[in-house]
Amino acid sequence: MTKAIVATLSMNELTGRILDMAQTGVYRESLFEAFKPVATKKQIKEAIALAKQFGLHTDPALRDTELGTYYQADIDKVASFQTTIQNSVILSAGDDMAQKLLIATRTVKLMNVE
Fold first, then answer.
1. Beta partners for residue 70, in sequence order
2. Which domains does the chain have, with CATH numbers?
3. What is the pTM assigned to this prediction?
């Protein structure tokens, strides 16, 4: 019995790529198609939700019946995501992913306090 090797992206990588694509605008269904080989639909939805905390927003005027919601991203907020990831979540082999995620989540929550 052989198992297929499937490339996967971390939540940070997936969120970052969604934000990158949204800087020029992207439809929801296009995200699902683009990341189908490397992420489940649930993971993509979770990454979209996370990306909304870093400037991802919808444009209701451009909603399409087949392609769904149209997303765009605020370039300045995308830069804050990239800075946050670079400075707070540096992963190495053997790291405790749960602990790193907890730290990243706390960092994001602190950034959202006004």
1. 27
2. 11-112 (1.10.10)
3. 0.68
Name the one residue in this structure whose structure tokens are 């694509």.
21
Contact residues for 62 (Cβ-Cβ < 8 A; gap 6+): 25, 70
Nearest one of 17, 65, 64 to 37, comparing CA atoms? 17
* Amino acid symbol at 7: A
User: In angstroms, rounded to a whole number, what is the distance separating the alpha carbons of residues 91 and 94?
Assistant: 9
CB contact burial 77-94 (16+ within 10 A = b; e otherwise): bbeebeebbeeebeeeee
Q: Tell me the C-alpha distance between 114 and 98, whole Å.
A: 27
**Where do the H-state alpha helices sit in 1-114?**
11-22, 28-35, 41-52, 75-88, 97-112
Please state, in angstroms and rounded to a whole number, the distance separating the CA atoms of residues 67 and 75. 23
Q: What is the pLDDT of residues 51-95, one digit of tens each?
A: 888 889 999 999 999 999 999 998 888 877 777 776 665 555 456
